[in-house]
Every structure is written in C-alpha cells, then in structure tokens.
C-alpha cells in the first residue's frame, strides 16, 4: 500500500517539483487545446464558408502533413546542430501569426481555399520542427528514469486537450463563428511560446558541428540506428500503418457526420468530445495495464483495442441515432488505444536512443511514421469522393485489423520491461 501511495504521489507531484518541465508541459497543454479547436473549425470553415468538396478537405488535411515527408528527415539533422528550445519558440510564434491570418482574411472577405491550403502547409512545416525538437528538450529536462512519468504527463495533457478542445469548440461555434474559433488557436500558440520563454536554458552548449560530417552522413546515422534496432523498426512500420488509416478516417469523418448524418457543427463537436473521453480512459488505466501485462503486451493490447473500434465504425448503418452511437463508440475505442501505444513506444525510444542521435532518430521515425499522414488524408478524401464516405469508413474500419496483426507477430509481445531491449542499437531480447 505504501508503494502504491508513493507511486501516486510521485505521479501527481512530478510537474510541480520540476519548474522547467512544468513550463514545457504547460506550453504543450495550451497548444494542444487550441489545436483541437482548429481540428473542428478548420474543416468546417472549408465546408461551410468556402463550400469545399470532400477531396478539397482531404487536400487541406494532406497539406498540413506533407511537410513530414518533405522536411522530416532534414529537420532532425538540423535540430541536432541547433538549440532545440529556440526551434520551439520560433515554431510557436510563426504558427500564431499564420493562424491569425485566417480570421483576418475572413474579416476582409478575401479568405479562399487557396489561403487555407497555404496556411495549412506553413503550420505543418512548423509542426515538423516543433515535434522533433520537443523530444530533444524533454530529454534534456528530465533524467532517463523519469521519462515514462514525464511522457505520461504530456500524454495526459494531450488527452485532456483533445477531450476539452471539441467541447470548447462546441461552445465557441454556438456563440461565435468558425474564424473566431480559429483566432483562439492563434492565441494559444502565443501563450505556449510565453511558457517556453519562461524555461531556463536546457539546451546546454551549442552542439559543435563536425567539419568532416555532412548532413547526409548525419541523416544516414539516424536511419542506420533504426535499421539496427528491432524495436524501432517495428515501431515505424506499425505506427505508419496506424497513422495512414487514422488520417484517411479523419479526412471523411467530419464530412460523414455533417452531411451523411446531418449533424450540426455543434453536434459534430460533441460527438468528437465524447469520443475523446476514450483517450482519458486510456491515460488513467495505462499504469495498471502496463503493470498487469508488461510494456510490450500493453502495446499489443492497444492495437487490439484500435481494431475493435475500427470494426464498430464499419458496422454503423444509416443515419439514425443508433448509428451515431456506434460511430461514437468506435471513435472512443480508437482514441483509448492512443495513449497506451504512444507513451510506451515514445518512452522506450527516448531511453534507448543516445542523446546525440535523438534529433535525427526522432526525425527519421517521424518521417516514416508521420510521412503516411498526407497519403492517408489524400486517400481518404479521394476514396470518399469516389465511393462515398460510408463505404470509405467501412474499408478503414476493417483495415484497423492490420496494425493489430502486426503487433502479434512483432517482438513487442516479448518485452516485459525496458531492460528487455538492448541500448545503443541492439535488437529486442528473445
């Protein structure tokens, strides 16, 4: 009992005892909350104000993710040579300005789908650099033994943001217009930057650039480390497949709810809010699940939960209230699986990756895992245009069986704890 109480005390007091981590966590929390408001408002602006087609909504989502394919690898190499916290600050301020252009253009009556395309792409570029640099700053802020706890805090804030963001969007969309809701997101990035400014320097001395090492050589070092590490290889393959399916789902999900089921913007926000409750359950139960199953089997279990949610989505039929309930339940299960997979995989990856390889290894993983995001968004949009959103959702729902099957044949199932993986490029223990 004392051990349990001690673990709970450590969990709840972790951020309060570490000011730099607290500021980093606050910056991420506020940014995620604002981004979730945009998740609802962005496509609704395209649909309601600009009368965008299903394929255009897919293109919009793809452009936000395309930078992971275009700049993902080079960003990691550069971040290993730069000061990661400075990268976070620049990314936050640029996103605040870029997103602020949307309500400005709407107010001046010059907003167009091309505007949204361009701004979405700029936001995507900043997100690439922010997400990669974020892990460098985190590993410089907390000791390796605390990474699992730190990532749980970060995943909790992401989950709460995803849960409360749609609810806040529902209120905003009832009171104000979608462009005003987007303006809230711009403010959130500015506030996030202020918290980052409040951090003490955690980057250490500026990395010395080795004259004999080119960007290409550094890039290959990150890819080589992934190739030599069994855990990272499977992490990339399974994560890429999951993201491909999820982005394809998001490309048609809002159109399906708004047009096929005839839901109002506020009701769409409520459905997403309810679905996001699944992520809260995932965060709250992950500690116990990890203890019962072990880290690897917990990752396998998370993908099985995802496939169950996908199958529920595939069984939804018609435009009745019952169909809305089934879609919401399926979306809830998919969201519940995310924290369990993300926290365990990211924590293990951060611990087994040497600090000097962190940026490029993270970038290479993100390139492989997130590089499928624009492909999935485009595929979902065009499939929805060609075959209808309902048929596309059925196909995606059935497709979620694939990452579940992959985890069952991967080395994940043999990993009970982090010590089962060799640090520095070794394969998972057998």
Number of domains: 1
The biggest beta sheet is recorded as:
none
What is the overall silhouette? globular
Beta-strand fraction estimate: under 5%
What is the helix tally? 16
User: How would you state the average pLDDT, rounded?
Assistant: 79
Looking at CATH, which topology would you report?
A: Growth Hormone, Chain: A
Low-confidence stretches: 1-9, 424-430
CATH class: Mainly Alpha
Annotated CATH homologous superfamily: MFS general substrate transporter like domains
Total strands: 0
Q: Assign the structural class, choosing from mainly alpha, mainly beta, alpha/beta, alpha+beta, or little secondary structure.
A: mainly alpha
Relative helix content:
over 70%
Subcellular location: Cell membrane
Organism: Actinokineospora diospyrosa
Transmembrane segments: 25-50, 57-78, 90-108, 115-134, 234-257, 263-285, 292-314, 320-346, 367-387, 393-412
Keywords: Cell membrane, Membrane, Transmembrane, Transmembrane helix
């Amino acid at each position: 009992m004392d051990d349990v109480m001690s673990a709970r005390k450590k969990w709840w007091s972790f951020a309060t005892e570490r000011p730099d981590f607290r500021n980093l966590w606050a910056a991420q929390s506020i940014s995620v909350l604002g981004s979730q408001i945009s998740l609802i408002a962005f496509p609704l602006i395209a649909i309601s104000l600009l009368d965008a087609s299903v394929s255009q909504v897919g293109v919009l989502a793809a452009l936000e993710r395309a930078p992971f394919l275009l700049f993902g690898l080079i960003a990691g190499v550069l971040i290993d040579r730069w000061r990661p916290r400075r990268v976070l600050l620049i990314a936050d301020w640029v996103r605040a300005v870029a997103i602020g252009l949307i309500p400005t253009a709407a107010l001046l009556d010059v907003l167009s789908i091309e505007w949204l395309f361009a701004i979405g792409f700029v936001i995507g570029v900043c997100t690439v650099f922010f997400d990669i640099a974020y892990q460098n700053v985190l590993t410089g802020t907390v000791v390796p033994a605390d990474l699992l706890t730190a990532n749980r805090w970060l995943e909790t804030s992401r989950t709460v943001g995803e849960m409360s963001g749609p609810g806040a969007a529902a209120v905003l969309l009832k009171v104000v217009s979608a462009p005003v809701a987007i303006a809230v997101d711009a403010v959130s990035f500015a506030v996030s930057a202020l918290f980052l400014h409040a951090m003490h320097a955690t980057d250490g001395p500026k990395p010395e650039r080795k004259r004999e090492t080119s960007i290409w050589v550094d890039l290959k070092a990150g890819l080589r480390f992934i190739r030599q590490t069994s855990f990272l290889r499977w992490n990339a393959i399974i994560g890429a497949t999951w993201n491909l399916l999820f982005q394809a789902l998001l490309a048609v999900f809002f159109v399906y709810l708004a047009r096929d089921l005839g839901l109002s913007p506020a009701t769409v926000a409520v459905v997403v809010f309810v679905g996001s409750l699944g992520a809260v359950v995932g965060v709250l139960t992950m500690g116990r699940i990890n203890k019962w199953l072990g880290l690897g089997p917990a990752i396998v279990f998370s993908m099985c939960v995802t496939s169950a949610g996908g199958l529920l989505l595939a069984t939804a039929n018609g435009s009745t209230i019952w169909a809305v309930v089934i879609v919401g339940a399926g979306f809830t299960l998919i969201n519940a699986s995310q924290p369990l997979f993300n926290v365990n995989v990211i924590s293990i990856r951060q611990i087994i990756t040497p600090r000097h390889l962190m940026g490029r290894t993270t970038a290479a993983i993100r390139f492989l895992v997130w590089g499928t995001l624009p492909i999935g968004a485009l595929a979902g949009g065009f499939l929805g245009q060609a075959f209808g959103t309902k048929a596309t959702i059925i196909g995606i729902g059935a497709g979620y069986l694939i990452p579940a099957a992959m985890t069952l044949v991967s080395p994940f199932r043999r990993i009970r704890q982090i010590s089962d993986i060799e640090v520095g490029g070794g394969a998972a223990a057998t």
